Amino acid sequence: MAGFALSRLRRSLSATVLNALAVTDPFRSPAAGLYSAAVVGTAFLNLAPRFAGRRRTVTQSCIGTPKLELDTPILCIDLEVMDSNMQKMAEFIMSRGKQWRPHEKCHKTPAIALKQIAHGAIGVTCAKVSEAEVMAAAGIRDILIANMIVGRQKLERVAALCRHADPIVAVDHFAQAEPLAAKCRERGVNCRVIIEVDIGLNRVGCRPGVDTHELAKAIDGLEGVTLSGIMGYEGHLLTVADPVEKREKIEEAMSVLRHCRDRLLNDGMDCSIVSAGGTGSYQITSECDGITELQCGGGIFADPMYQVNMGVGGLDYALTVLATVVSRPALDRAVLDSGRKSQHPDFTKPLVKGHPGATVTHVSAEHCQVALEGDSRDLKIGDKVELIVGYADFTTVMHDCFYGFRGERLEVVWPIQGRGKLQ
Q1: Phi-psi region for residue 135, left (φ > 0), alpha (ψ -120 to 50) or beta?
Q2: Residues 24-47 pLDDT 10s
Q3: The CATH fold of domain 74-78+317-415
Q4: pLDDT tens by residue, 313-358
Q5: Could you give the 3-state DSSP secondary structure of residue 395?
Q6: Secondary structure class of 227 (helix, strand, coil)
Q7: Prior bond to 73 cis, omega within 30?
Q8: Which of 57, 225, 340, 377 has the most CB atoms around its CB within 10 Å?
Q9: What is the residue-wise DSSP string for 240-256?
Q10: Residue 89 near residue 306 (C-beta atoms within 8 A)
Q11: How many beta carbons lie within 10 A of that of residue 64, not counting itself?
Q12: What are the boundaries of each domain within the chain?
């Protein structure tokens, strides 16, 4: 019966709207039995299951609903703060002569990526081919896949993507570049390639110096791909506590990239892209000579992970989980309905917004325990509480959609279309 109802609904909606929703089952509900979809800030429709025998009907929109009237837990964006963070990041980076290609892993949502582009970003960075496909379907063309792409199926998808966008694929070995070039030749397309250089993270990346130079020469001789530059990630330096030491180490890491670039240019190869920079380092990396673009994306939410653990300043918290007090077992303790299934607390615990005396002490599967002092002890069962997300990248993937608020009223609901895109 569910399949019959879905089929009937699909016949009643235009293909354009269904594509904008980009959901397998539009009756799936992340909160309050409501599913709202939007593209670039405009809500198309809101769907909710209503059972009347075997019938399901379309209900009215929840847009305009006060935040505290919505069911919990839900993932909330302060739209004004997010826009402000985007503007600050874009201005900081571009004022230093760099371009902004933000990583989308913190949001995985084309509507948000398009807002970043409106603020000056040149495109997006992704980790997976499937994520790049989602962004390309929204009309975004300049897409860096900052990961190694291996396997026939993925290469076919990259080649197909080249007809709808202008992707760049990172490689660190000829065994990745040659099959990609062969597949692109077979399909009659061309794909840009950059070499990832290991600048100290010791994860992936070609060794700087001779190895990077030799790999670049080999790629430069391939038909089907175009060598466009290099990239590196200083992720091992983001949490260096001393700001002077952090700057010195990041500058040293960027000098490795600059040296690799110079060797390529001196040998007549293209190295127009030198890409680096995470949110935890962008305020330093932006000022390093030789870098052309920054991949920092998480600053749009400016989680405690970045502000507290990495010393990022000038940005404000934009992402929260709205939760409900479900138990008050003691005067100095409250329990919320937002556990590990709705937030990731391991790197940085969430902060309780608006209640200075409240501190998250423990998060289990379904519950969040909060220690209470002072006025926060006035919290009652049924009260709503906002938790500032400790780390967005690992929290976003637990939710079906973002609820965007201007002030305290719901303005938009964006499906997280890149969620579950693992290949």
Answers
A1: alpha
A2: 332 233 333 323 333 333 333 333
A3: Lyase, Ornithine Decarboxylase; Chain A, domain 1 (2.40.37)
A4: 999 999 999 999 999 999 999 999 999 999 999 999 999 999 999 9
A5: helix
A6: strand
A7: yes
A8: 225
A9: -SSHHHHHHHHHHHHHH
A10: no
A11: 9
A12: 2-65, 74-78+317-415, 80-307
